[in-house]
Amino acid sequence: MATVKITDLYKSYGSVEVLKGINLYIEDGGFLVLVGPSGCGKSTLLNTIAGLEEITSGDIEIGQNSVSGLHPSKRNIAMVFQSYALYPNMTVSQNIGFGMEMKGVKKNDREIAVNKVAETLQISELLDRKPGQLSGGQRQRVAMGRAIVREPEVFLFDEPLSNLDAKLRIDMRTEIKLLHQRLGSTIIYVTHDQVEAMTLATKIAVLKDGCIQQFDTPYEIYNNPNNMFVANFMGAPAMNLIEGVIIKGQKSVEFEMKNSKDGVISLPINDINDIEKYINKTVIFGIRPESINDLESSNNESNKNIVEREVEIDIVEPAGSDTYAVVEFGGKQVVARLNGNSKVSVGEKVKLTFNLSQAVFFDTQSEERIR
Amino acid sequence: MISSSIRGNSGANIKASRIFIYLILIIFAIYYLLPLYVMLVNSLKPLEEIRGGGMLNLPIVWSLDSWRSAWSSAQIGVDPSGLRPYFWNSISMVVPAVLLSTILGSLNGYVLTKWQFKGHGIVFGLLLLSCFIPFQIVLIPMAKLLGVFGLAGTTAGLVLVHLVYGVGFTTLFFRNYYSAFPTEIVKAAQIDGAGFFRIFWRILLPSSGPIIVVTVIWQFTNIWNDFLFGASFADFDSIPMTVALNNLVNSSTGVKEYNVHFAGAILAALPTLVVYIVSGRYFVRGLMAGAVKG
């Protein structure tokens, strides 16, 4: 078990910079998820930690020791690959035991260790099979077994669930979380799936174009995104980002957004200091779908941050547990997440409550958060 | 009524087209097998029967004499040695040349796909280019080089020539095969602590069955059938089978012994035939079982 510390990490291929000054720290036993769209450098970052790619500058420490320059096998890490990367010509038990074999562990000791891991992963009956004879989920388990048997200080997962079907993916996600709790080991996990990131992580690093956009706990990433990219990337359905103007109202500063049917709707803004600088300027207003409700769905709590506005519903999408109602603001579709029993219908004028305590505003130019 | 008659019609159509296809296939099979038949049948006839015409007839008197003669006593050049010594010359040239070029090709392919270095594309391009150099162009420089190395006229010299010529092809085969081999497996092995040769020997090579078979068949056939290099660079004690066959046909002691020539030609073709028959089944069988997602 160990901490991982990454300092000013740069990586370039020729003239193309892939990682531009990454700084990360994950505590002992932490679960760090690197998330971002494809091409953001998250897998490259993981490969540099594993030692499979050389770094251009900066430093990587596992425990107290700098590992840059160390061979992958000497870094005390284990990696689970997206394609599982099982050795096709070896049986499951040979696959799991290959690392120990390379270290020169005796055959008997190897077998004991392999059997123990196979038992915890419930793959004992598969030990004599070849990877080609296994299903996707079973291969996934074998790949994890190969990692666990090394008893590494840090586990590296490179999109391990993306080749599984939807249901199996959720099962394996839970299993990885259980595994983390049981082993208490440090894990670094790459994914492009923000749900995986939210459910698994103790810390999330959101990457874009080789830069960390935000590095924080899942709660902070979700509720206090640093910029529009993070706000848009995390959460499904995504945060509503609505263009509008800040005006000076009678009581407080207000945000005005236009709707082609109902005209202008304005919402009061509290507790955002810098918003005064934006009076009469265009900003982006961000609000999560679950912060927009109808009167039935909201808990009737009265709060100065909860305001009611009447709008016309354009689309209704029932999804069982929730009903998504789509209204139009600022030329964009805005999703409201209503209770599954909600009876709203298309074309109806409904009073929606906007919970503004979770609302955020962004500068249109820099796309940074206005705080 | 209508529908059933239509069904009956189309069934008959399918049957007719089947028969047509098989007929064509059988005709072509006969067409391709006919030369082999002629050679085989006539090699088993005494010379008088051949002279009497009737090339397609079965022998009246079956005899293996011409085979014995072709193998061990026919006049080749100045020696009445038969093809036997030259057969062994060919074997001792082909086997090392095939093995070495296959091993080198697989190593090249491994490096060019899994351990890429700066300029690997250029190196591969140059190796590919070597496949397209006509044999005739290199004859004189190659003779000069063999002289410098002291390998002129030796079997080792011929092995070197075929190795140099073969590596371009074998590299091409293995590079293309390994470029489809998941690099993540190599990375996993690196993390497991396996080195360059260990990864090659334990992981890539055991998965290379089909491409090894392809390469061996290709190389074996090409080197065994080569005439130009054999005629140009071989000395008396390293002359390969193809050149000896030519000498057999050309050195006559009066009459043209067609039956012996036929037998000799089959003997010269036999090893390549055996290689096809033996390794053909691995060719079909050994396709890599899904290591990655299925």
Q: How would you describe the overall organization of this protein?
A:
The complex is a heterodimer of chains A (371) and B (294). By secondary structure, chain A is an alpha+beta fold. Chain A has two domains: 4-233, Rossmann fold (3-Layer(aba) Sandwich), CATH 3.40.50; 240-370, Beta Barrel (OB fold (Dihydrolipoamide Acetyltransferase, E2P)). Chain A has helices at residues 42-50, 92-103, 107-120, 136-148, 166-183, 194-200, 218-223, 228-233; strands spanning 4-13, 16-26, 31-35, 57-62, 65-66, 77-80, 154-158, 186-191, 203-208, 211-216, 240-248, 253-259, 263-269, 282-287, 292-294, 306-312, 315-318, 322-329, 332-339, 349-355, 360-363, 369-370. In chain A, helix 5 links the parallel strand 7 (154-158) and strand 8 (186-191). In chain A, helix 2 crosses helix 3 (107-120) and helix 2 runs parallel beside helix 4 (136-148). Chain A is elongated and about 80 Å long. The two termini of chain A are 38 Å apart. The mean pLDDT of chain A is 88. Chain B has helices spanning 2-43, 47-51, 65-73, 84-114, 120-129, 135-149, 155-179, 183-191, 196-204, 209-225, 228-233, 241-250, 258-285. Chain B has two domains: 2-73, no CATH class; 84-285, Orthogonal Bundle (MetI-like fold), CATH 1.10.3720. Chain B has 13 helices and no strands. Chain B is flat. The two termini of chain B are 48 Å apart. With 294 residues, chain B is mainly α. Residues 1-5 and 286-294 of chain B have low confidence and may be disordered. The interface between A and B is medium-sized, with 31 and 23 residues.
What secondary-structure arrangement, pairings included, does this model have?
The complex is a heterodimer of chains A (371) and B (294).
Chain A: E1 4-13, E2 16-26, E3 31-35, H1 42-50, E4 57-62, E5 65-66, E6 77-80, H2 92-103, H3 107-120, H4 136-148, E7 154-158, H5 166-183, E8 186-191, H6 194-200, E9 203-208, E10 211-216, H7 218-223, H8 228-233, E11 240-248, E12 253-259, E13 263-269, E14 282-287, E15 292-294, E16 306-312, E17 315-318, E18 322-329, E19 332-339, E20 349-355, E21 360-363, E22 369-370
Parallel strand pairs in A: 3-8, 3-9, 6-7, 7-8
Antiparallel strand pairs in A: 1-2, 1-4, 4-5, 9-10, 11-12, 11-14, 12-13, 14-21, 15-20, 16-20, 17-18, 18-19, 21-22
Chain B: H1 2-43, H2 47-51, H3 65-73, H4 84-114, H5 120-129, H6 135-149, H7 155-179, H8 183-191, H9 196-204, H10 209-225, H11 228-233, H12 241-250, H13 258-285
Helix pairs in contact in B: 1-13, 3-13, 4-7, 4-10, 5-7, 7-10, 10-13, 12-13
